Amino acid sequence: MSLEDHAEDLASDLGVDKEEVKRDLENLVNYSVPMDEAKQSLRRKYGGGSSSGGDGTPSSKAISEVTTGDSNVTVTAVVLTSGRRSIQYNGEQHVIREGELADETGKISYTAWDGFSGDLEPGQTVRLGNAGVREWDGKPELNLGDSTQPEVVDETLAIDYEVGGRASLSDLEPGDRGITVEVQVLECEQKVIDGRDGETTILSGVLGDESGRLPFTDWEPHGEIEVGASVRIEESFVREFRGAPSVNVSEFSTVTALDRTVEVAEDAPRISVHEAVDSGGLFDVELVGNVIEVRDGSGLIERCPECGRVIQNGQCRSHGTVEGEDDLRTKAILDDGTGTVTVVLGDELTAAVYGGDIDDAREHARNAMDKEVVAERIADRIVGREYVVRGSLSVDEYGANLTASTFAEADDDPATRAETLLREAEA
């Protein structure tokens, strides 16, 4: 069924104007809301419900009282952040505003669609009448459209949140919008990707500050972003990349070179495997544990020359029969007593633990007439030993994987570390 048909059926059921329903439905669907959820949201919006007063007008609610079961509400709150983003539907570009609002009871995210007549500026206190409510990532979010009545009010609210979106990298979470960071560009490379308008040039790399490091993507390359530069990035937003937050810079972002150097934390936070896995993903983390196993798919492997995937018996899942290219890789299980994670070592780290480069590995396998001898030597050298591993952690339905940037045998005294842990547990 087409969106037009969905809109027609919904408008008929609700007894409202089809074009208005169609416009609202397009907005939601093009903001990645599933069709069933979008229709349910509009049924709540046009069908009345518990959020309305006896005269049919939306009830005024504190932010903490707004739930996903509400259809429309009136809230009075302070604008914390306001960021712009471009989306595309029906072949046209549309600019939406999004951010967070807060009152004395809590905060809530919002999206202001085409037709919203307000001008939301951080620090303003606003009353938003007839604001729609939808569920986003399991939480209520305000939808501001042409039926929302915005009003700037002269009222002071005692909020417990910082206005303006200034944040450290370690504070960022996927979904944050209108964010300002001051960072040093640690890594930066230019890429050409297939964008929605064809080939697009972007920048990607790593940013750092005193709290940590995160990846970034600049969708509209800014000249100020280059390796070694310290910059202030305003009006950015945060997405999830391999389970961790990623800073996104857009055409609406302002990038300003700083006249000082932003200091960057040298060390990654060291936490337990359980804490790391429970986080859902971390870009830069350090784990300590014992290697208890080297998994299949380690040692001398072959990759597809087209996509880089590991191939089996000359077969790539994406490109069929290919002439594989030799590579070195290690997949080791790390256990610290609280949980396990698969540590993936690339070619350089694998060569270091193997004790030879790829030519040595080929010769070793040829002499033994068995590729498995490379993985066996790696296992002999690392299984049963304790290692400090730093890298990027991703967690999915298949488990937790840490792509290592460093892999070094632990040199601290286990007894001393145990005593430290006991003291921390008793504190």
TrEMBL record:
Q: Quote the InterPro entries the UniProt record gives.
A: NA-bd_OB-fold (IPR012340), SOSS-B (IPR051231)
Where along the chain is composition biased (Gly residues)? 47-56
A single GO molecular-function term is: DNA binding
Keyword Membrane appears in the UniProt entry: no
Q: Which GO terms describe its biological process?
A: double-strand break repair via homologous recombination; response to ionizing radiation
Q: Would you say which domain of life the source belongs to?
A: Archaea
Q: What is this protein called?
A: Single-stranded DNA binding protein
